[in-house]
Amino acid sequence: MSVETTLNQENGAVDVLPPKHTRGGPYYRPNVDIYELPDQLVVLADVPGAKNDQIDIHFEDGALTIHAKVSERQDSQGPYLRQEYGVGDFYRTFRVSEQIEATRIAAEYSGGVLTLHLPKAEAMKPRKIKVSAK
Question: Are 39 and 120 in contact (CB under 8 A)?
């Protein structure tokens, strides 16, 4: 169901992993935007309907996994005559290169959007080289 998207920046920061599913039921692959700043990569993932305590971000062996559990949006007062809202968890995994400092990955959640900050290793950050005169 979920096919992981490859983002392969020139610095090779993020790549693809196949999905793993340990729980039944529908799930969705969150859409993401990823952009690069001088000192970090920023991942914006749409996970509407989740609560921040239901979002699990896990990093292991170079794999960064986003798993957001989503509860039913409303309680039905009777049988549905029509039901178009799909409710399910969000799941996506990225391969993160060693050029990202995994111990400093940070996340925040607001308005249905999960923001991940992937700081670049010091060696990967742009720097100005001073020219000395002889």
Answer: yes
Give the N- to C-terminal CA distance of the chain in Å, as an integer. Answer: 63
Q: How far apart are CA 45 and CA 34, in angstroms?
A: 9
The tally of CA atoms less than 13 A away on the side-chain side of residue 72 is 4
Please report which helix (H) or strand (E) contains residue 8, including its range. Answer: none
> How far are the Cα atoms of 13, 65, 82, 104, 126 from residue 6, in angstroms, in the given order?
10, 14, 36, 22, 24
pTM, 2 dp: 0.73
What is residue 39's DSSP assignment? T
Q: What is the pLDDT of residue 21?
A: 54
Report CA 132 to chain centroid distance, whole Å. Answer: 43
